[in-house]
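TA notes. Do not distribute before section.
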Amino acid sequence: MDYKIIYSNRKTLAIEVDENANIIVRSPKRLSKRQIEKFLLNKSDWIEKTVEKQEIRAKNRKVYSADEIELLRKKAKDIIPNRVKFFSEIIGVTPKSVKITSAKKRFGSCSAKNSLCFSLYLASFPLEAIDYVVVHELCHILEHNHSKRFWDIVQKYMPDYKNRELILKNKNFQS
């Protein structure tokens, strides 16, 4: 198994399989290569499954042209702020700002100051998936974590959120 080791001042070992199915091990400086290899051997099933999953995702990944990205950005700017306004009124919260970004690793985020960011790639999904991400991020204004209380709030405003979440998981959105 090929892998890259990144040593740092961390306390624990971590394994990451990146979007190109490369295995990256993050290790404390004090650990030997032998200790790392023993750890990898214990996690070999997980590594194998995750590498396979990432290879499939990489093969199916849609690559967008510059023109397609601009169309998605325009579509996102047309749809998402309106959906935020609609659901903000229902939930009773007001975000500080709403931005469309070119983020590839997340669909949306909510800052500690309640500023919302949404990936332009979200516009490649059906409205029910977009609405789920909007509600998810708006609910973070009420609860800035993923606790049971947070998920209860999401469910209150979107009882079928798990089905909508599956739409996002079943389609590869990265460019």
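Switch to the second chain here.
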Amino acid sequence: MKVLIIAGSESDMKIAKKAAGVLDQYNIKYNIEVASAHREPDKVEELVKKDYDVFIAIAGLSAALPGFIASHTKKPVIGVPVSAKLGGLDALLSIAQMPKGVPVACVGIDNGQNAAHLAARILGLAD
């Protein structure tokens, strides 16, 4: 598998499916998992250790998932903020304002499609 899409909760699956649809168009292999950085940190850590090239992390509210993943891997992480509260602006800022040394790419609010397009471009550079 090339890409792992991790949704922070079941309610984020609609965004994950948007990303999956684009990856299907590119014929990029992926898996989708639901795992919370807050409620299931051990599960997220185990998922990040698996052999994926790019991670797409979908998160609302505190939006810690993309940064948590990035702190456990050197591979590219793309964060997708979800419009759970404050129109998603809180999630967007949480993902975009990562500390130095823990980079996370951030796409627009609820824009799983662009996350998948970016993953495809990253994989294209690698190939």
